[in-house]
Design brief:
One of its GO terms (molecular function) is AMP kinase activity. Keywords: Kinase, Nucleotide-binding, Transferase. This is Adenylate kinase. With 243 residues, the chain is α/β, with parallel strands linked by helices. It is 46% helix and 12% strand. It is built from 10 helices and 7 strands. The strands form 2 sheets. The chain has a 5-stranded parallel beta sheet. It has a two-stranded antiparallel sheet with strand order 5-6. Helix 5 packs parallel to helix 6.
Length: 243
């Protein structure tokens, strides 16, 4: 990045933001919840508030493939065969990201781990870096209200910002609040796909809640509450307050 082309005001704003973050806890946080539970809505706020790097598994794999990294080449070969990328590759991507300046204050993981085995492998990698997962936030939502959430979801592809046509609409219909770029509805945001994803979530991901509960780092968020109330619960969880 050429700093000469950045406006002085923008540079000082970023410096001020990072300075304010030094007053807040450095943490590694995992978001767990079914599709449509609100993780995509809340993650950008958590990221900005604590100066964490937001690592979503799908985005990491796409970036690695497009950049042609060694792990990206391995992932592309596997995905081209139609196979699932191994846990080791995903953890390798997380490991590599942790060496970047953007991740020096901690990670915000979304989409990984999905199973208890993955959770154990992640813990092992972090242990060898003398780090650990500090908080796991479970976004709890009843299955029967998720379809409305999913079918109304709209996404800004470049940033990952998520909106909802009813519950969290953009200021201008169909465009991102910050960039003015168009929002999309993902092809898999429909009831049929949701039911399959919910079955996979309950079969595979839910058991890892007990794994983190036994470590006393699991915080359950009532993700059916209003957005500002969900934000308050997250804030209280991060700062270890009782609610």
């Amino acid at each position: 990045m050429d700093l000469k082309n950045i406006r002085l005001e923008d540079l000082f704003t970023e410096i001020r933001r990072r300075y304010e973050c030094t007053k807040k806890p450095s943490q590694n946080i995992i978001l767990i919840g079914p599709p449509g539970s609100g993780k995509g809505t809340q993650a950008p706020q958590i990221k900005e508030d604590l100066c964490l790097c937001h690592l979503a598994t799908g985005d990491m794999l796409r970036d690695a493939v497009s950049q042609g990294t060694e792990l990206g080449k391995q992932a592309k070969e596997i995905m081209d065969r139609g196979d699932l990328v191994s846990d080791e590759i995903v953890i390798g991507l997380i490991d590599a990201a942790m060496n970047e300046p953007r991740c020096e204050r901690g990670l915000l993981l979304d989409g990984f781990p999905r199973t208890e085995v993955q959770a154990e492998k992640l813990d092992s990698m972090l242990f060898h870096k003398d780090k650990k997962i500090d908080k796991v936030l479970e976004f709890k939502v009843d299955d029967d209200i998720l379809i409305e959430r999913i079918e109304g979801r709209r996404v800004h592809v470049a940033s990952g910002r998520s909106y909802h046509v009813k519950f969290n609409p953009p200021k201008v219909e169909g465009v991102d609040d910050q960039t003015g770029e168009p929002l999309i509805q993902r092809k898999d945001d429909n009831a049929e796909v949701l039911r399959k994803r919910m079955t996979a979530y309950h079969d595979q991901t839910s058991p890892i809640l007990n794994y983190y509960r036994n470590k006393n780092i699991l915080y359950t968020i009532n993700a059916m509450a209003a957005i500002d109330q969900v934000q308050q619960q997250i804030h209280e969880s991060i700062y270890n307050k009782i609610f």
